[in-house]
Amino acid sequence: MNKQSIQWDKTIKQKAIENLGGKCKRCGIKENLQLHHKYYAKDSIRPTQHESGRATVNRAKESLEHPERFNLLCLSCHNSVEPKRKKFVSLAGFEEIRSEVKEMVQAQFSETFLKGEDINELGITKLKILDEGSYVKGNYGDQLQVRVLANDKEKKKFKWSLASKPNDMLIKMFGKDTAEWVGKEVEVTTEPNKKGNPSVVVKPQGIQGKVG
């Protein structure tokens, strides 16, 4: 495949992404975006064991002709709505998938943990929850960590290790199933902890407005 063909393929994919809003339908982020079939028609491009970059381009063309068949999802949300989804690739499609995974891993490692000082110094008032999180061992037992998008000027992403108070508040607002938290927005502020340092707290029912 020559450089002109590769550039044409990228243009088709970009047009498909822009045509579907340019961001994840579920969580709103604009990275690692993929086309998700809401349903398959007779002429739909279905995933196969020999999935390739050409199949991805053809699927993008299908979405431009029939946008009603598709949702635009990030890699994380795509895997979440299709937990049994398997992506088979031939050698032709391997580089594309490896690039997606590399970008996702780099994003994970580049994000820092959210602190009360960040809320105060950056003027953060709202956070959008980007994933359902996972539990990790902490100083006070298992703690839930979720990725969030802040409404500061740079729209920074953080890992938020939830203390019991904000965790309980989010459960009260959105329920125990953290998958239902994805895409929700919360208003936040700080209050002194026992050591006098600012800690992140959630304002009750603070879910109005848009982060980005």
Structure, described:
With 212 residues, the protein is of the alpha+beta class. It folds into two domains: 3-109, no CATH class; 112-202, no CATH class. The protein is built from six helices and nine strands, in the order αβαβααβαββββαββ. It has helices at residues 3-19, 53-65, 75-81, 91-110, 116-122, 164-174; strands at residues 33-37, 70-74, 112-113, 126-129, 134-138, 141-150, 157-161, 185-192, 198-202. The strands form two sheets. Strands 3, 4, 5, 6, 7, 8 and 9 form a seven-stranded mixed β-sheet that branches. It has a two-stranded antiparallel ribbon with strand order 1-2. β5 and β6 form a beta hairpin. α1 (3-19) packs across α2 (53-65). It is elongated.
Main sheet record: 7 strands, mixed
Distance between the termini: 38 Å
Rough shape? elongated
Estimate the helix proportion, in percent: 25-40%
What number of domains? 2
Order of helix and strand elements from N to C terminus:
HEHEHHEHEEEEHEE
Structural class: alpha+beta
Unreliable runs: 1-6, 86-95, 206-212
Number of helices: 6
Percent strand: 15-25%
Number of strands: 9
Mean pLDDT: 78
How big is the Rg? Answer: 20 Å
